[in-house]
């Protein structure tokens, strides 16, 4: 009897903890439960992005190649041509035999080249292959950096509860979920822009074409230089070409902040402020180049060219013919920093708010409908014992909900299906037990003995079936992405709580009812 | 109240008929898959699906089809939800050779432009899914591995808890259920989506569930019916658990039926898969799993003709001694 009281107390305690998890007292009034809804129920946009990590490797290789070229020129080496044929490879050809050993010494002196690359080849031609460990580190860094940048940009959108997280097993994918957003276009533009800002002194230009620009250099791009282009402000619709140095003295990393503002003609512009290191570099660059034009280059396109009037340290402005939306986006991009590599979209899913609401309604109706049908059947078939089954199934659902709230799991549409299956499983365990009790009664046992024998016999069957289902659910979770994972989570929690409710709660209820009668001869089942 | 009271159906007798029926369904499904290919949804094949809701109630499926005629590619237009929703889904396959990236939503944009140009009145986009080829390939592999590993894991567990021959029976039944369900998905033109795969994996769990209940009873009965042939023991066990099997299948079927009827368009494929799987799972537990286990145990030589029913006295003795299999306390009852 005392034992029974403890069992009842345990059940009440579990119920109380479950209620506390579902409706925590410390929650704000606007958010009742802690079970948050998935995108398929809330509506919104889900994007899967891939970071083109190869690009990050290419940048590194090109940078190393450029430094090698620079070093060769400084030492007046003539002859070698340096190319970057792949993301991880630098090829040097045509090293004159006389300077071969000197070249090797010089290359080994280059810190990046010596530590990050493996040199191979023999006199005259060399291949520098990036070490696998370096490549792996760079890829990981690129993804991490992209993740942070995307997160900053998404946060700038002002969407409630966005998700930015690593995704998939390949290690280079990012999942972005934006609840409540119905137009992915602007978001995708904002997230996917590289936003590499560079400030460079214009060596030559503007010219209307690349040929005209390179005329004075015999049609060849001079070493260490590159040609960039941008919209011609005087002649809308046509392009201007400029010759600038390959390596930028100032980049977006030197910025501390950027904001939308107005230029002197009261047109939308972006003002930026340098950080301390940037200010020192910017001060030197501007004081060394007074009177020369400086280009503001964003993602390899010239946005602004302005003549340096005097020494500037901390402030600058990008102006041109921008709309205020473009200016706002640009400021956001500059603030959030450049992406280490380009992004591509692998998947895009948009769920409209009406569909989400419809899905919730349908899911709730289906769950309640299923529960009602099952409840009626149990009452008809098992009479009073049916109540027992209904109590344990409902308690199962409550505990399941509490599990989900406690674990911070997300409720998705397949998750609703998981709830419905949990009802099915709960009923299954009860049926298994009840049928066994009936058999035991038929074999001549009294109610108490029959209940005891029924539960004891069926216990291992229930354990076996639940473990088998858990195995399936675990692999489902492993495989699962998004909604499917929600389904697997519900199923796992449902299975676990079902063992408790079907075996422990249901049995306690039987014992409790039977304990209130002296020497019961019959029972309603 | 009891639907099945002390039944003695000879299920094992029917195993050849059952296997022939199953084989027919599975072969028909395989033939159809061979002809049309596996009906992969865009989750796995990649592609674009947009759903538009039209304000104008006179817009028909054909009107939408006509509107998007100019968009290249093999388009599939279907009514979405109930007729009174005036919503249509348009599916476009992944265009071969086009790479991932910003161009991904190009098809969706073209569709929208085409529908706008057709003057079908105001419409809004209810949902839009664009899946690139890389994701689809990734998911195909993952789905296959998840299914195989979960089956392997369950086999290992049953082999551990019961015997290898039982495990083989259970696993054959599970494969049977997956194949039969796939066949029905093909018959009824359902695409394999993520949700459908989730349902298939759930069915593996469900089907094994049923099988374990019967095997558990077989193991228990083997202690008390030592002299009997395995075939008879299995038959008895199937009969003894018949009530539970059908009630469980029935109630689960009811709740999934509610999901199928009221769960909305998004879950329809899931619910359909579950419905077929539940029926197939219950059927295969009785006719396939047990039969295979018997054949494996005997090396495949089982006589199909068994005595139709045991005498009532034998059964009651079976029931009471069955009760005595595990506990000393209960053994007294069987003596009494």
What does this structure look like?
The complex is a heterodimer of chains A (525) and B (336). Chain A has 525 residues and is an alpha+beta fold. Chain A has 3 domains: 2-42 and 352-515, Multidrug efflux transporter AcrB transmembrane domain (Multidrug efflux transporter AcrB transmembrane fold, Up-down Bundle), CATH 1.20.1640.10; 55-134, Alpha-Beta Plaits (2-Layer Sandwich), CATH 3.30.70; 193-344, Gyrase A, domain 2, CATH 3.30.1360.200. Chain A is built from 15 helices and 19 strands. Chain A has helices at 2-22, 39-42, 53-74, 100-109, 111-116, 132-156, 184-192, 210-214, 276-288, 324-336, 353-382, 384-407, 413-442, 447-479, 483-515; strands spanning 36-37, 44-51, 81-86, 89-93, 117-122, 125-130, 163-167, 173-179, 197-207, 225-231, 239-245, 250-251, 255-262, 268-274, 293-298, 301-307, 315-318, 343-351, 410-411. In chain A, strands 9-11-10-16-15 form a 5-stranded mixed β-barrel. In chain A, strands 7-8-2-18 form a 4-stranded antiparallel β-sheet. A 4-stranded antiparallel β-sheet of chain A has the order 3-4-6-5. In chain A, α1 (2-22) crosses α12. With 336 residues, chain B is an alpha+beta fold. Chain B folds into 2 domains: 12-39 and 136-307, Multidrug efflux transporter AcrB transmembrane domain (Multidrug efflux transporter AcrB transmembrane fold), CATH 1.20.1640; 47-131, Alpha-Beta Plaits. Chain B has 12 helices and 4 strands. In chain B, α5 (133-161) runs antiparallel to α6 (164-187), α5 packs parallel to α7 (194-224) and α9 (242-262) runs antiparallel to α10. The model of chain B is unreliable at 300-336 (pLDDT under 50). β18 of chain A pairs antiparallel with β4 (123-131) of chain B, so a sheet runs across the interface.
């Amino acid at each position: 009897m005392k034992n029974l009281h403890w069992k009842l107390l345990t059940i009440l305690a579990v119920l109380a903890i479950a209620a506390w998890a579902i409706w925590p007292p410390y929650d704000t009034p606007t958010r009742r439960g802690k079970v948050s809804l998935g995108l398929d129920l809330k509506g919104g946009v889900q994007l899967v992005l891939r970071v083109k990590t190869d690009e990050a490797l290419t940048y590194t290789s090109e940078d190393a190649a450029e430094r090698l070229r620079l070093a060769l020129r400084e030492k007046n080496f003539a002859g070698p041509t340096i190319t970057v044929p792949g993301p991880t490879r630098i090829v040097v050809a045509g090293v004159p035999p006389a300077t071969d050993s000197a070249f090797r010494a010089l290359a080994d002196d280059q810190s990046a080249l010596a530590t990050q690359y493996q040199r191979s080849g023999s006199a005259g031609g060399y291949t520098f292959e990036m070490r696998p460990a370096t490549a792996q580190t760079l890829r990981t860094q690129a993804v991490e950096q992209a993740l942070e940048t995307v997160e900053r940009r998404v946060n700038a959108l002002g969407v409630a509860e966005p998700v930015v997280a690593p995704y998939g097993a390949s290690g280079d994918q990012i999942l972005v979920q934006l609840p409540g957003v119905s137009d992915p276009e602007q978001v995708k533009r904002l997230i996917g822009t590289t936003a590499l800002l560079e400030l460079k002194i214009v060596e030559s230009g503007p010219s209307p074409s690349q040929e005209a620009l390179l005329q004075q250099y015999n049609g060849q791009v001079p070493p260490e230089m590159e040609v960039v282009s941008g919209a011609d402000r005087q002649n809308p619709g046509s392009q201007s070409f400029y010759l600038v140095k390959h390596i930028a003295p100032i980049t977006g990393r030197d910025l501390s902040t950027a904001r939308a503002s107005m230029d002197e003609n009261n047109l939308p512009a972006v003002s930026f402020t340098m950080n301390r290191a940037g200010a020192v570099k910017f001060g030197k660059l501007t004081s060394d180049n007074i009177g020369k034009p400086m280009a503001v280059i964003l993602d390899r396109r010239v946005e602004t060219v302005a003549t340096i009037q005097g020494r500037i340290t901390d402030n600058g402005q990008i102006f041109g013919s921008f709309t205020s939306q473009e200016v706002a986006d640009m400021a956001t991009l500059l603030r959030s920093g450049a992406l280490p590599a380009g992004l591509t979209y692998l998947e895009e899913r948009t769920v409209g708010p009406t569909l989400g609401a419809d899905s919730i309604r349908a899911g709730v109706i289906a769950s309640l409908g299923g529960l009602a049908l099952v409840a009626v059947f149990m009452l008809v078939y098992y009479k009073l014992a049916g109540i027992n089954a209904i109590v344990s199934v409902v308690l199962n659902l409550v505990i399941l909900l509490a599990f989900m709230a406690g674990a911070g799991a997300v409720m998705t549409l397949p998750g609703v299906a998981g709830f419905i299956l949990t009802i099915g499983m709960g009923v299954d365990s009860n049926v298994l037990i009840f049928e066994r009790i009936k058999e035991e009664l038929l074999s001549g046992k009294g109610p108490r003995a029959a209940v005891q024998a029924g539960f004891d016999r069926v216990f291992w069957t229930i354990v076996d079936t639940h473990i088998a289902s858990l195995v399936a659910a675990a692999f489902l979770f492993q495989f699962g992405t998004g909604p499917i994972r929600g389904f697997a989570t519900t199923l796992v929690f449902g299975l676990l709580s079902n063992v408790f409710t079907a075996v422990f709660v249901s049995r306690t209820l039987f014992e409790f009812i039977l304990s209130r009668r002296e020497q019961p001869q019959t029972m309603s089942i | 109240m009891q639907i099945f009271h002390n039944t003695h159906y000879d299920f094992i007798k029917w195993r050849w008929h059952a296997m022939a029926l199953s084989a027919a369904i599975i072969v028909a499904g395989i033939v159809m898959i061979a002809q049309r290919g596996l009906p992969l949804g865009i989750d796995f094949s990649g592609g674009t699906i947009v759903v538009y809701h039209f304000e104008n109630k006179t817009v028909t499926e054909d009107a939408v089809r006509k509107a998007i005629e100019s968009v290249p590619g093999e388009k599939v237009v279907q009514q979405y939800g109930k007729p009174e929703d005036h919503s249509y889904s348009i599916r476009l396959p992944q265009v071969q050779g086009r790479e991932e990236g910003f161009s991904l939503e190009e098809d969706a944009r073209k569709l929208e432009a085409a529908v706008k140009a057709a003057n079908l009145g105001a419409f809004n986009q209810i949902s839009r899914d664009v899946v690139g080829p890389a994701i689809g390939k990734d998911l195909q592999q993952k789905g296959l591995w998840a299914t195989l590993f979960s089956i392997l894991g369950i086999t290992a567990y049953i082999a551990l808890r019961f015997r290898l021959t039982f495990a083989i029976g259970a696993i054959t039944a599970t494969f049977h259920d997956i194949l039969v369900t796939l066949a029905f998905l093909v018959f009824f033109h359902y695409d394999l989506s993520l949700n459908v795969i989730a349902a298939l994996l759930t069915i593996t769990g469900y089907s094994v569930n049923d099988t374990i209940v019967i095997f558990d009873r077989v193991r228990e009965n083997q202690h008390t019916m030592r002299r009997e042939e395995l075939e008879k023991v299995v038959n008895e066990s199937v009969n003894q658990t018949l009530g539970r099997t059908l009630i469980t299948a029935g109630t689960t079927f009811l709740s999934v039926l509610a999901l199928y009827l009221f769960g909305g368009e998004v879950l329809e494929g899931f619910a359909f898969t579950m419905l077929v799987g539940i029926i197939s799972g219950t059927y295969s537990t009785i006719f396939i799993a047990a039969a295979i286990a018997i054949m494996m145990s005997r090396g495949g030589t089982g006589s199909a003709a068994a005595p139709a029913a045991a005498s009532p006295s034998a059964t009651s003795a079976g029931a009471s001694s069955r009760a005595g299999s595990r506990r000393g306390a209960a053994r007294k009852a069987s003596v009494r």
